[in-house]
Amino acid sequence: MKANAKSLIPNGLEERSGQQNPAFQELMLAAGDRLSYKDILSNIPFDVVLFSIDHRYLFVNPKAFTDPYMREWIIGKTDIDYFLKRGRDISIAENRHKMFDEVIRTGKNVEWEERMVTSEGEVKHYIRKYHPMLDESGVIKMVIGYGFNDTERKKALDRLQVSEKRYRDLFNYSQALICTHDMSGKFLEVNPAICNLLQHTAADFSGRYIHDFIPSRHKQEFINTYLPTLARDKHLEGVFIAIDKSGGEHYLLYQNYCVENEDKEAYVIGFSQDITLRIKAEQELQIAKKMAEETAHAKELFLANMSHEIRTPMNGILGMVQLLSKTKLNDEQKNFLKLAQDSANNLLVIVNDILDLEKIIAGKLVIEKLPFKLVEKVANIVQSFIYKAEEKGVALIYQNSIPGDLVVEGDPYRLNQILNNILSNAVKFTEKGKIVITTRIQNYEDNKATIQFIIRDTGIGINEDKLDEIFEPFVQADAAISRKFGGTGLGLAICKNLLEMQDGTLQVTSQQTNGSTFTFNIPYQVSNKELEAEQDTTQNPDYSSLAGKRILLVEDVELNQYIATHILEAWGVNVTIAANGQEAVAKVEADSFDVVLMDIQMPQMDGIEATHHIRQSANSLKSGIPIIALTANALKGDCEKYKLAGMNDYLSKPFDELRLFTTIHRNLFPDPLHKSTNIPVSEESRPPASKKLYDLTNIHSVSRGDDTFVRKMIDLFIETVPHDLTKLETALSEQNWEALSKTAHKLKSTISSMGITSIKHDVRAVEEKAKTGESIDMMPSLVNNIVSTVRAAIEQMKVY
């Protein structure tokens, strides 16, 4: 027994152990029959030592002292002996001695953390433990000491603590509102930012729910929506209102996330931002926007009413002047009449300038894209100023280097307006000398020609320091000019804006008393089409061509009734008068007319509402009658507005005999070459029933004389197409743009084969714009025009 135990004691230690500590020898003899002491202690992965009760080493394993010499040397020594030999920090040994005394005194385990610095300066951390071994009577025989290197765990713990501190600092110092709550909405934790905002302590949130801090008017909706949606989608964002301690409301923009972990209850991390100031700013902006819109609307109404109030008597004045000019007058009376007419026209120019500027500012002025002969247009404008220039003894010279047959696409009316303004100023401010108008192609590239216009005069000129100011609204170069020559100072401002809207430029050079040079450029797309000769109703108009036509004149002002009736009856037209829209609707239902001349502002029922009722007539002949707006309101949408209401054309007051004839003639004898494609058609608008809407030329060519085939094609069209029209209307009402585009594509070929050409551009526009999502606001008018036209064509086909 003793021999076996002795063989298990580590080499070199058996003699000393037995001599110095009989108790240890006895212990080893007792354990020898059960285990291999040397193998076990040598392979334990942490320090193991045995101490006598006076704190001297009895045994150390290789993990405790890797150096075999030190393992032998330390037996019988103390920690203080070892630390002195090694030159280590003696305070560590003293602390161990203190812990050992605690074990001896109490008979209980002790544990502590020990920090050591190696000779290389590396810091290591150890966990140390002392465990007393008692005999049968409970007396301590020896003490087991063991420990392990805890450096890596300590470092990991330090890193975790740093990370947790950073998180906690972020949580505590973040200006974002951060909280966590469980899946019932009960707060788990809130950061100081929330406490500061809502004027509560963190304890105030303990055990309380989010909805406790929400206004009662929103509480139930929040409970019913927030938590179920978050549980389903795991992420939710939005805005809600939170109440602070004093009852103040705060708008919070939140982004919340549901966090799920295995074997743990899910919870929610919430991030919010106080956007109260932004919301209030937006509300204030909305109020300001509403006020601005109301002010703009009031301004628009004022200008519209001003226009109406000025144009209505102007219509009477100019109408009576025109009628008076047809009577027998002496030279003096003719001169008086001319002066009156010029004064009225000048007043009308001022009104038009104010309204044009307002439309430019409001963004309601539209630039047309129409083909026209450039040189011919400019020559006609110049021709109109020759007489005025000759009256003053000023030479008016037109120098042109542009081919006379050049056709461009642009807005001829706005070119006319720009040239009229600049030439009018040139003639007005030039007392002697000449005015030279030069036109040339400045640049030609990619089928686009930039046309340069140069107007030089020898007039009074402009001071150089005033050149920038003359393009500002209501500004003139000199107050004396306004007194001497008149004018509002709007002309050049309008010209500059009109040119910029066409990607053009306007420049001026001038010197006081030495004349001025205005140069402007406009880029035009060159058209490859030759314009067909058009019937010009403005030169030697044939008024008798309207003889026998029946016209309904809807006008509430007796003077205007008299003027228009007198002009129309002189042409041989049969005129019927209605004093308001209600009478007009009744007369259209009771009788037949070729044209309706419809005033806009009237008592009982205005012209737009009357047009709406007429367009809804079940009689296609009556619903399709041409209606021309006669309006003294030249501001609000003009032609576009009235055509959207279902009218075919409009004529602004005051009008002269030629403009009235031209407008009526254009609508009774339409020229498809000059139909505008830029104006949307009203949903109530229907094409004139007298015009054939379809052309079976293609069908006849395919049929090779087989009338049965033609009839079958018509029957199929009548049978199948209404279903597609219904699908078109349904897609529009549901705003299903994809279905709308596909249905329009399907209709395109069908409509084309039946020769319904008047709406082919509308069908193509619906197909393309619905596909791209562009100009969606135009869809109702386009679709309704397609539907009404096709249905009208079907009605015509039924009597084929």
Features:
48% helix, alpha+beta, 28 helices
Q: Topology of this structure?
A:
Layout: H1 2-8, H2 14-20, H3 22-31, H4 37-43, E1 47-51, E2 57-60, H5 68-73, H6 79-86, H7 90-106, E3 110-117, E4 123-134, E5 140-149, H8 151-173, E6 177-182, E7 187-190, H9 192-198, H10 202-205, H11 216-233, E8 235-243, E9 249-261, E10 264-274, H12 276-325, H13 331-362, E11 370-373, H14 374-391, E12 395-400, E13 407-410, H15 412-429, E14 434-445, E15 448-457, H16 479-485, H17 491-501, E16 505-510, E17 516-526, E18 550-554, H18 558-570, E19 574-578, H19 581-590, E20 595-599, H20 607-615, H21 620-623, E21 627-631, H22 638-644, E22 649-652, H23 657-668, H24 697-703, H25 707-733, H26 737-753, H27 760-772, H28 779-797
Parallel strand pairs: 12-14, 18-19, 18-20, 20-21, 21-22
Antiparallel strand pairs: 1-2, 1-5, 3-4, 4-5, 6-7, 6-10, 8-9, 9-10, 11-13, 13-17, 14-15, 15-17, 16-17
Helix pairs in contact: 1-3, 2-3, 6-7, 12-13, 12-18, 13-17, 14-15, 15-17, 19-20, 25-26, 25-28, 26-27, 27-28
Low-confidence stretches: 1-20, 31-35, 477-488, 672-690
Q: For the record, give the distance between the C-alpha atoms at the N and C termini, rounded to a whole number.
A: 132 Å
Q: Helix share of residues?
A: 40-55%
**Largest sheet descriptor:** 7 strands, mixed
Shape: elongated
Q: What is the number of E strands?
A: 22
- DSSP summary: helix tally: 28
Overall pLDDT level: 80
**Gyration radius over CA:** 50 Å
Query: How big a fraction of the residues is strand?
Result: 15-25%
- Structural class call reads alpha+beta
